[in-house]
Design brief:
By secondary structure, this protein is mainly alpha-helical. The protein has 15 helices and two strands. The protein has a two-stranded antiparallel sheet with strand order 1-2. The longest helix is centred in the middle third of the chain and has 23 residues, at 159-181. It binds a DNA duplex through helix 4 and helix 7. Its main location: nucleus.
Length: 275
DNA sequence: AATGGCCCCAACCGCCGTTTC
DNA sequence: AGAAACGGCGGTTGGGGCCAT
């Protein structure tokens, strides 16, 4: 019986009329009970095949077109954190499927990873990522200033140290990714140039207004998140001498004036951020 | 023009955890 | 409670397109 059923099932690329029929029945019955949907629709496809076609191709919420600069960076960074957790990474990239990300990774990054250049990126430490997220958030919020010399993280890294790491990583990242992966880094580079010139002229105070701020959904979410947790007190911390911050209990992290619980690891942080 | 190598991506496979009956 | 069905996930495959030779 099952063998007979198998024989009648179509395989391989989907035809246009199959797609149309599938869309019609998913709209009608919803995204569930794929086996029933497959048989009710009259499609000679397995439920699994129908589900896959919908999830990876027909779903109207899917993004079309090439990966953006930012999506590439997110894939790269989250893969460094989580490994081949494609569905998990996909959840941080609205409109992209695990299959798409997996394919993208395999064709664009895998060879590079297998060569010697990857190791240093896997060491993105949390303080750097947090500082970076805060920095982007600060830009997005167009805050009046970003006082590098007032920052300290829970490991005792000063703002200057984080800033230096940020710049080094950005420079290395920019150079290698542009060369190796053909990324368009113009926005990032212009930001960086601006940062450096501002830093020189303002003694460590960066004017957020000066930057060409991107308005991506991710950065907006970071910004929203920061808005949620920011308080008047934390704003006051911006101007607080970091020596007093460092004397505080180690359970708190003060990066760029926002407080985090040390127990909250980066995964939790980013889940909250992008979920 | 023919061919081979490579890239890209849709689709499939097998496994496993969850849900349903 | 347990078997079957279902759904999700990561790994793999195969075919079309492009490009260099």
């Amino acid at each position: 019986m099952d063998c007979k059923k198998e024989e009648t099932l179509r395989r391989g690329p989907w035809l246009e009329e199959e797609d149309e029929r599938l869309v019609k029945f998913v709209t009608l019955l919803g995204e569930r009970r794929w086996d029933s949907l497959a048989s009710v629709s009259g499609l000679k496809r397995s439920g699994k095949s129908c589900r896959l076609r919908w999830m990876n191709y027909l779903n109207p919420s899917l993004k079309r077109g090439p990966m953006s600069q930012e999506e590439k960076m997110i894939i790269f960074e989250l893969h460094a954190l989580w490994g081949n957790k494609w569905s998990k990474i996909a959840r941080r990239l609205p409109g992209r499927t695990d299959n798409e990300i997996k394919n993208y990774w395999r064709t664009h990054f895998k060879k590079k990873v297998e060569s010697q250049n990857y190791g240093r990126y896997t060491n993105f430490n949390r303080s750097f990522i947090l500082a970076y997220a805060n920095f982007i958030a600060a830009l997005n919020k167009k805050m009046m200033c970003f006082a590098v010399d007032k920052i300290i993280d829970w490991r005792g890294n000063t703002g200057e140290e984080l800033w230096r790491k940020y710049k080094e990583t950005e420079i290395t990242w920019t150079r290698t990714t542009t060369q190796e992966h053909g990324f368009d880094e113009t926005v990032k580079e212009s930001k960086q140039r601006q940062m450096e010139s501002d830093k020189e002229t303002d003694g460590g105070i960066c004017e957020g207004e000066s930057f060409g701020v991107m308005n991506s959904p991710y950065e907006n979410r970071i910004s929203d998140w920061i808005s949620e947790i920011s308080t008047d007190q934390s704003d006051a911390n911006l101007l607080e001498d970091h020596s007093s911050s460092s004397s505080e209990s180690n359970t708190n992290i003060n990066v760029g004036s926002w407080w985090f619980q040390e127990t909250k690891d980066f995964e939790e942080f980013s889940c909250y951020l992008w979920s």
